[in-house]
Amino acid sequence: MSLSYLPLFLKGEVVKGFGRGSKELGCPTANYSREVAQSLPQDIKPGVYYGWAQVNSHPVYKMVANIGWCPFYQNKELSVETHVMHDFEKDFYGSNLKICIIGYLRPEMNFSSVDSLIQTIKKDIQNADELLEVAEAIKLKTHDFFTDQ
Ligand code: ADP
Ligand code: RBF
Ligand code: MG
């Protein structure tokens, strides 16, 4: 699907979320502040996206991001959370996170169990992994956005 606001470049500090990502889902998500969420294009489609992410001056890694209200948890505010597809040695709260959102994977959904949410996230990661291998996506990995520190 082609969305006019993509690719979308975002940057901001990593803040504390609800603490459910790693503990309940085995999938940590770096959360942005409310300000970043409020700066999104008005017509953004809530859902799961893929693209590139960079923590401080670390390398650029693949990512999946969830933008929305997490119907499974019924959050009150729109959140922007990024799972960086890399094993970090420690947490990076307070760091600067840059993301380049390239494409849309699917709408946010509700699930009848935590386990089906986890399985769906695993598939999202596999899909993102493949979609980020195409030349058009790889080109954005070296965009000035990531090299200008
Ligand atoms: P919170 O609810 O506070 O966002 P999570 O359980 O979602 O907590 O964990 C997110 C935190 O885990 C991030 O803010 C970051 O400091 C750390 N983290 C470690 N590895 C990753 C990763 N690969 N992707 C995203 N965050 C990670
Ligand atoms: N939450 C939902 O309620 N529905 C979803 O369909 C959903 N999909 C997600 C997909 C990915 C790739 C990620 C990283 C998160 C997703 N979440 C979804 C958000 C998840 O509920 C959230 O990360 C945790 O609640 C921790 O804040
Ligand atoms: Mg999180």
What would you say this structure looks like, in words?
This protein is α+β, with helices and mostly antiparallel strands. It has a single domain, classed as Elongation Factor Tu (Ef-tu), domain 3. 26% of the residues lie in helices and 28% in strands. It has 5 helices and 6 strands; from the N terminus they run βαβαββββααα. It has a 6-stranded antiparallel β-sheet with strand order 1-6-3-4-5-2. The structure holds adenosine-5'-diphosphate, riboflavin (RBF) and magnesium ion. Magnesium ion binds next to loops. The site of adenosine-5'-diphosphate has 20 residues, from helix 1, strand 2 and strand 5.
Low-confidence stretches: none
The total beta strand count reads 6
CATH topology: Elongation Factor Tu (Ef-tu), domain 3
Can you tell me the CATH superfamily? Riboflavin kinase-like
In helices, the fraction of residues equals 25-40%
Task: Tell me the number of structural domains.
Answer: 1
Give the SSE layout.
Elements: E1 8-13, H1 21-25, E2 30-31, H2 34-38, E3 47-55, E4 61-68, E5 79-84, E6 96-106, H3 114-131, H4 135-141, H5 144-147
The structure holds adenosine-5'-diphosphate (ADP), riboflavin (RBF) and magnesium ion.
Riboflavin (RBF) binds at residues 17-18, 20-21, 25, 27, 29, 48, 64, 66, 70-73, 81, 83, 108-109, 121, 124.
Task: Describe the structure concisely for a colleague.
The chain has 149 residues and is an alpha+beta fold.
Question: What key attributes describe this structure?
Answer:
28% strand, alpha+beta, binds magnesium ion, 26% helix, binds adenosine-5'-diphosphate, Elongation Factor Tu (Ef-tu), domain 3, 149 residues, 5 helices, 6-stranded antiparallel sheet, binds riboflavin, 6 strands
